[in-house]
Design brief:
87 residues; mainly alpha; 0% strand
């Protein structure tokens, strides 16, 4: 068996807690999950899933949503009913 090494990195505490719960539900530890990920990256020489930026969480959109909510709470915005858009 190859020698093991300790890897340290920072992770948002909410993300860590969520991942721990998911890993536990699958019967594994976070260490096992990260080891699986590292082995797959090493074998395939790529990130084993699509990585992209979700525009919903962009700073511009979050600022827009915060302003819209503030306007709504102050009575400056009103609810408008519209038809659903098929994608």
């Amino acid at each position: 068996m190859a020698a093991t090494t300790l890897v340290n990195f920072r992770l948002d505490s909410n993300v860590k807690e969520s991942m721990e719960k998911v890993c536990k539900a699958m019967g594994m530890s976070m260490t096992t999950a990260f080891t699986i990920f590292a082995n797959k990256v090493s074998r395939e020489k790529r990130i084993p899933f699509e990585v992209n930026a979700d525009p919903f969480y962009s700073k511009e959109n979050l600022d827009y949503l915060a302003k819209t909510i503030a306007d709504y709470k102050m009575g400056k915005a009103k609810e408008v009913e519209h038809d659903l858009v098929e994608v």
